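hey can u check if this looks right to u? its 139 residues, i copy pasted from the old doc so theres a chance i mangled smth
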Amino acid sequence: MKSRKSYLGCALAKRACQHRIRAHYIRMPDLEEAWAQALDKPMGTTKFLKKYAAFSVLVIDEWLLDHPDESMRSMLLELLERRYDCASTVFCTQYAKKDWHQRLGSGVHADAIMDRIVHNTVWVETGSHNMREHAALNP
């Protein structure tokens, strides 16, 4: 069973696809793994950024589950810069937006990443109800 935030993110990407809008859903750990693999290939980082910047809707689930390292923060900054004002990025996370800056490392990269996120943003709060816990209690 998916959490509410994951379910909503998947539903948004699926609906976009049904309307022939290029959309992609990815978990943050999988995005990190794809980035690590791109670093090892010739032109891998260029292809990676081009691929993920091209989606009209990009859903990143489990956003900031782990603290991104310097390489990941640099990639996120570049990716969000390329997507800014021309594509939609959906962040699904259990962390309050007030905690994002700290989870991004609190430095200049965090400032720049947050600057690209907070402007022109619609925030959707799904509440604190845990769907997995609910399912376990009500089989």
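Residues 32 and 76 are 10 Å apart (CA to CA).
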